[in-house]
Design a protein that fits this description.
Layout lengths: L4 E2 L25 H6 L2 E2 L24 H5 L2 E2 L25 E5 L5 H9 L4 E5 L2 H9 L5 E8 L3 E2 L1 H9 L3 E9 L3 E4 L10 E4 L1 H14 L7 E4 L3 H11 L4 E5 L1 H7 L2 E5 L8 E8 L11 E8 L7 H10 L5 E8 L5 E6 L3 E6 L1 E7 L6 H12 L3 E9 L5
Parallel strand pairs: 1-5, 4-5, 4-6, 10-11, 10-12
Antiparallel strand pairs: 2-3, 6-7, 6-14, 8-14, 9-12, 9-13, 15-19, 15-20, 16-19, 17-18
Helix pairs in contact: 7-8, 9-10
């Protein structure tokens, strides 16, 4: 069993961070002494990231400088208020751990479990937003981030696909986590006393059949969506809500002193969430084990069959395409098209994310990507990384 230590996420940065601008490569990691002598607050609500260029040609610069983008405010380094959740950020002490890993949520979240599976004995750093986790890695507060990208029942987590494009982090691995939901409440609370059940909307949807037909929690008991499963457990425990149950993990019950009313309440036992591991630098792709590669591309050229050509580039080389996902082009949602036969029409513009089973060290993958570049206006390799072969 892997051990995860969670710590308050505050950001203690040296004075040089105020001159830090655009490219992270110009920033040198401060010493532990520097971190202890200077600190700042980074508000998750004020995060501004790189934007996709309006011409579709790549990533633009950060707004002015990193200091302006993050709204840094000096604080007294002697103040060490305990936090369970992170809009204030500080580099976590390593305590001999190899890696500090950022995840979204509070202790007890499924993302924390994924971080522990990906990096046993890591220093897990909770973040209140997905974008804060990205920035924690960019600013050297964390060494890695572990974030969900898709669920076998709920589909893709679109927010993280958008953030992959807006930030210059690299996918260096993936991990799949089986999700086992529990129904939690304060000690002594019975199911027939409940007036509402709260959790993340996907967790509520994944357990609805069991709640209604097996546990008898019918329409008279309200369902309320919140941002985080473990955060919901913490909320119920903190406020002593005896009419409210939570759908969360077994670990959340242990952490927040809740009783388990029912275990394994997910409607489908094969409920799996896929997470990706993000780092500042890519790993060197290899061919001695199964690899997966993720790319994002766009096209703004007239003519049909662009997606067919992309699929053909992989099929011709016998490369298995495991996923393709379209997302609206952030700065070009619509395109006017003039056709002599039908007049002027508006078409939606999209970015396309694709995963395929091949390493970029494989000549087949290199040739496929080169071919795709010929008929797309933008292409970026998000990462080439080992596949998670565990069940």
């Amino acid at each position: 069993m892997s051990t995860i230590s969670s710590s308050t996420f505050k950001l203690n940065l040296p004075p040089s961070i105020y001159q830090y601008s655009a490219l992270r490569r110009s920033y040198h990691r401060p010493t532990r002494t520097d971190w202890k002598t200077t600190c700042a607050i980074v508000s998750g609500s004020s995060c501004h990231a790189t934007q996709f260029d309006e011409d579709g040609g790549g990533i633009g610069t950060i707004n002015g400088s990193m200091a302006a983008a993050l709204d840094l405010t000096s604080i007294d380094p002697s103040v060490q208020d305990a936090l369970t959740f992170t809009t204030d950020l500080s580099p976590a002490p390593t305590h001999g751990c190899e890696l500090r890993v950022a995840y979204q949520g509070v202790p007890g979240a499924y993302s924390e479990a994924a971080a522990g599976k990906a990096y046993p004995n890591c220093e897990a750093i909770p973040c209140d937003q997905f974008e804060v986790a990205f920035q924690a890695v960019e600013l050297w507060v964390a060494d890695r981030a572990v974030l969900p990208v898709e669920n076998s029942l709920g589909g893709s987590i679109h927010r993280n696909y958008d953030l992959l494009l807006r930030h210059r982090l690299h996918i260096v691995g993936e991990v799949q986590l089986s999700v086992h939901h529990c129904l939690l409440a304060l000690p002594g609370v019975r199911i027939d006393c409940l007036k509402r059940v709260i959790s993340h909307p996907q967790a509520l949807a994944q357990c609805e059949h069991t709640l209604t037909n097996k546990l008898g929690i019918n329409g008279g008991v309200a369902r309320e969506g919140v941002d985080d499963t473990a955060g919901a457990a913490e909320f119920v425990a903190k406020h002593g809500l005896r009419d409210t149950a939570v759908i969360a993990s077994y670990r959340a019950a242990e952490l927040y002193g809740l009783q388990i009313l029912a275990e394994g309440i997910q409607d489908d036992s094969d409920n799996v969430t896929r997470f990706v591991m993000l780092a500042r630098e890519p790993i060197v792709p290899r061919t001695d084990r199964p690899f997966k590669t993720s790319i994002v591309f766009a096209h703004d050229r007239e003519g049909a069959s662009v997606l067919f050509k992309v699929l053909s580039a992989f099929a011709f080389r016998d490369i298995n395409l495991t996923k393709i996902e379209s997302r609206p082009h952030r700065n070009k949602p619509l395109r006017l098209v003039d056709d002599a036969n039908v007049g002027t029409a508006k078409r939606f513009e999209y970015m396309f994310y694709a995963d395929f089973e091949a390493s970029m060290a494989d000549v087949r993958a290199q040739n496929a990507v080169s071919e795709i570049e010929e008929f797309t206006s933008f292409l970026r390799v998000l990462g080439s990384y080992p596949m998670d072969m565990t069940s």
